[in-house]
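Chain A, query sequence.
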Amino acid sequence: MILSSYLKKKAPVLFFLGKLGLLFILISLGMSRPVEATEPPQRVVTLGNAALEAALVLHLKPVGAAPWVAAGHFDRFPGFLSDQQITGIDYLGDVNQPNLEKIVALHPDLILGNQVEHGAIEPLLAKIAPTVLCDVRAMPWQASFRIYAGALQQVDAAERVIQAYSQRLAELSIPERQVSVVRFMPSQVRLYLRGSPIGEILQEAGLSRPPVQNQARWKLTLSLETIPLADAEVIFVAQSDPKGLLYEKFT
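Chain A, predicted structure.
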């Protein structure tokens, strides 16, 4: 049985079509080393979307960024960011292979990144500028957001952002539903579990998950045989494959 069975018979589907990135903000934890600065940084380089989005939401535009963009997309920056947000930010390559020469040329006074992708090059980054890396997937997004905000000397502003987020959740009136989140990518189909960033947000919003999805893990990779695991009252679908080949195959 494939996803269309659930789309047509069991569950309404809400399409994010790339907007899911808005819910994947800032999921990291664990500063790589203490960073001391007497003045707020002015020339920040961000490696990865979590660091980039943290800087932007705190109204500090990086001088350069190496973001993550889904394979097959030709945009250099995530599609959920506006032209106004990314104008003036130098593209430094893919998150997994940031261009160190370009970073040096920007003369940054702070580098923010992810421990998973950039831990191996952290000694090189630290020679360029003070570097803060967070351990991606380790803790809720608020924890990493606070770490990045501390490095940016924007602690009070970060607390206001978190407070506004909590207030918005408190204002929501959502009927009880079991929900799933499925993401179609060029090479795989993912089912995000309770332990993922979107899983955390849905849980905080008061939405439950089917028992098989109520796990602290991030995700399961689905096949045609295991697609029934995505069954729920409501299925959120994210389409990250520009050609839509897997979506067509599964539906």
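The chain has two domains: 3-22+176-250, 31-169. Strands lie at 13-15, 44-47, 64-66, 90-91, 110-114, 131-134, 179-184, 189-192, 219-222, 234-239.
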